[in-house]
């Protein structure tokens, strides 16, 4: 391996270590307490080294949130591919989204700004809207199949996204006084009622 390749690999390793340390700190201390100094201390470098790789904390949060959206996108695609019928795809996609949110709370909170500022404003990429896009596609196909007006698909799918995201947000922000089984039941009933209404 040449000198250039070795230096490039070292840079990539430091960048990865910065992101890993930031995510690890967020898991133990919360996103609000994250700072460039804490990240530098965690990887045993000086703060200027961290600034060499990321302009500020928001740039680090953006990269981590993008990784979260990529992971979510993969889970949604897996769920979708398990079914052929659009109504079954819709149920599977919503269920995968729900499971991702609670299995990856730190990602979800950062991705959607729960209890903090949402990262990546003005820098949205394709994966950021994959859930909404998949809901729309399924909704459109269900409406078309039922003979209803497909022009309503955008409005209807946005309403479903709002309901799903709202239930998750309520559970994450008030998880002490709301049973998880109640919200999951509410989610399942909401999706079933939504499909019947199309």
From TrEMBL:
Cited Gene3D superfamilies: Tetracycline Repressor, domain 2
Coiled coil ranges: none
Pfam families, A to Z: TetR_C_33, TetR_N
Span of domain HTH tetR-type: 12-72
Protein name: TetR/AcrR family transcriptional regulator
Alphabetical UniProt keywords: DNA-binding, Transcription, Transcription regulation
InterPro entries linked: Homeodomain-like_sf (IPR009057), HTH-type_Tx_Regulator (IPR050624), HTH_TetR (IPR001647), MT1864/Rv1816-like_C (IPR025996), Tet_transcr_reg_TetR-rel_C_sf (IPR036271)
Transmembrane intervals: none
Taxon lineage: Bacteria, Pseudomonadati, Bacteroidota, Flavobacteriia, Flavobacteriales
DNA-binding region in chain numbering: 35-54
